[in-house]
Structures are given as C-alpha cells and as structure tokens.
Model the fold of this input.
Amino acid sequence: MKKFFKILLWIVIGILFIGTFVFLYLNSKSEKIEYAIVSPENGCIEKTTVLTGKIEPRDEINIKPQISGIITEINVEPGDVVKEGDIIARIKVIPEASSLSSAMSRVESAKISLDDAKSKFERNKQLYDKKIVSKEEFETSQTAWQQAVRELDAATDAYNIVRDGVSKHNAKESNTLVRATIGGIILDVPVKVGSSVIQANTFNDGTTVATIADMTNLIFKGKVDETEVGLLRVGMPMTIAIGAMPELTPKATIEYIAPKGVEENGTNTFEIKAALEIDSVGSLRSGYSANATVTLSSSGNVLTVPESVVEFAGDSTFVYLLTDSTAAEQQFKRIPIVTGNSDGIKIEVKEGIDSIARLRGDLIKNK
Done:
C-alpha cells in the first residue's frame, strides 16, 4: 500500500513538472504581430474651422430722452413692432429752480415792456390823429408795441418749455415725447412709469428708455483664433448651427474681419461678422448662441487614406506598403508620399501610391 502511494506521488510530481515546463515554453515564444490592411479610396476632403459666437441684429439702437424728468407713460413692451416716429414714452419735466426763476423773470419783464410800448403807441396814435406827431414817429411806436407783444409771447413759451417741456408752437414735437428713431422690434424697456431719466450730455450717456432693433437684418458675430484668421477672407460662405434651434442651419457670408486682435486667456482672437441670408432669419431671436462652420479648402475626387496610417517625420510623410502577406510575418516597405488637404480623419495623397496600394493600418491582434 505504501508502495502504491509512493508511485502516485511521483506521478503527480511528474505531471506538475511537465505542466510547468510546457507553460513556460509556451509563454517564452515570441508573439506574432498582425496589422490591419487599408487601401486608398477616392473621395472629397474638406478642411473646415468652427467659430463660436452669437446672433445679433445689425442695428440695435438705444432710445434716450432729450430732456430729464419722470416717466409718466410707457406705450410699448418688449416684442412690439414700432415704426419710426412712434411714441414710446412720455416724460414729465421736473424744472430746475434757477432756470424756472429766470424764465419767469423774463415773462414779467416782457409784460412791463409791453405795457410801456402799448401806452406809447396809444398816446402817439391820438397825437397822430390830431396831426401833432409825424407819421414816422407813430409807426416807430407801433413797431415797438408789436415787438413787445412778440417778446412776451416768446418769453411765455420759453417759460412753458422750462416748466412743462412743451412748446405751444410745436407741441407734437415736444421733447417730453420719446419717439422711435428707427422701425423694428422692441427688444428691451429697462424703465418703468415713475422712473427718473436724464438726457445724454458731456458727463453721461443718458438713460436708455428702450432698445429697438431691425430683426430682419441679422448678423453672426464670433471670434477666431490667430492661427486661423489668416485663412479667412471677406466673402467666404459659412453655415450657422444654433444650439437652441438645431433644425435651422442658416447661411451667412463673412463681411468683416477685425484688423486687430484682442487677448483673451493668453490667446489672441479676432472678431468676425457675417451677414445672414434674409430667408434664414424669420424665427431667430437676438442673443442666440451659435457656431459657424467655414470651409477653408476643398478637394474633390482625390486619392485619400486614413490619416492614422501616415507617419509624419519633420516635413516628410511616409506610409508602409505591404510587400508580402504570405510570410510568417507581414512584410512592409516604408515609402515617402506627398500629402494635400486633411479633414483630421482622412488626408489627400498627391504622389507616392495609387488606388491599388495596400497599406499598414492599426495593430489588430497578437498571437
């Protein structure tokens, strides 16, 4: 019985030894490398760049009052369509005390002058009727009286303007009426009834009563990096993608490229403006974020290969051409090629290979 267990033990040891030897032998064998094979294809290569920006109206006007005062009436709200000259708001003038006092003093002086001129005219008229004074002296007093009447009228009107902001001779064009200077859509009304407003002057820009824009004339305003701005030209077409409205792809044409860049986060960027086609702006709103795709170059019906199979070495480019697929390991030859446009996935091959070439691609498996 002991002899049987001893023989069994040796058999187990022998099996373990042989298994270990086979395992080590198999793992010591070199792995066979195999590569995917790709062939050139005829296709179209487009090099594009994407600009980020937003949709804006070409003309966005801030309407400001011509006088300072208090808003007493607002006739519009955002989204309303207005025409040039429409009344947007009314302002009640809060007169300055010194200006009001000066205007009132002028009225009082004009009344005194009128009373004096009237008395002289009536007296000279009586004397003239009696042939005591000359006609010239009578006409002089008459002219002075008429001038005094006009001066009182002007002083009174000036007083009304200072006090109420309204002239009786031109009430429809009063400065108290804030009017639209262009036709378009009201984008914003940042004031309310009762708000104080001031007119624009040397020291401030004045209070904006409303913002108006022509929403039939929109532009794309974006920025491009300095590495690509040299590839853009005025007149180049672009396709707009709007995140909020993915179903729309408006067309636009570049009309402005900033001559000076602005540094942002350590990188120089240049402003780009492009006019949207009129048929594309029907449902767009001001401020939509958008991306614009511009085709920088295009090559049609050219020989292309995946850019991943191309080896870049300085200013030279190479591919590996399959020369023998029947040997134990695939045989390749490194050959130079001349490349053209690239879209980041495929690259144009101008010289070096033809459409029947078989090239080394990615490593697909190990054996």
